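User: I'm curious whether this sequence folds into something compact or stays loose and floppy. Could you predict its structure so I can see for myself?
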Amino acid sequence: MLLVGRRLVGEREDPRLYLAAVAALSGVALVVLGAAHDASRSTAGDLLAVGNVILFTGYFLAAKRARLAGAPTLTFTAGFLLSALPVIAVAMLLWTGAEAPRGGREIGLLAILVLGPGNGHLLLNWAHTRVTAALASLVLALVPMLSSVWAWAVLGESFTWKHAAGIALVILSIEAGRRIEMAERAG
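Assistant: Here's the prediction. I'll summarize afterward.
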């Protein structure tokens, strides 16, 4: 976000935010390395994650621009989610890699996934007019961290010292970014 945010949304960032971003990225790398030898890890999944970062950056900056131009939060989020629905529905219909959920636990987890991410987008879109793209993207570095915790808690995947260190580094980076942004607003 720091690399393209100024050009696309006109934000000028404190150079110290680059250090916080590099630290957060290092924390994410530690988490990825923590799962390097897991059977659940795959090169295809890693490539999909990189593609997701690129596509999400485009969405994120388009959302920021729309919100700064006055698009209402709820309308924008509902429009985005409704336009994504056909794409996801087609992908789900074509996907043959898994069986349909059978038990109450699986259906409950799916319900959380259906209700949770939409609310996250709503809150993020609301925040676009209140925080810089750089700080918001630092906060979004928590996504792989939380995924690691959920994968451990719900799916029984491994959780190593690399995961813990990566999570700590990302949290410290987010706090550093928050303090830098608060100092900029005060000064």
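Summary: The helical segments are 2-9, 16-34, 43-68, 73-94, 104-127, 133-140, 142-155, 161-186. The chain has a mean pLDDT of 79.
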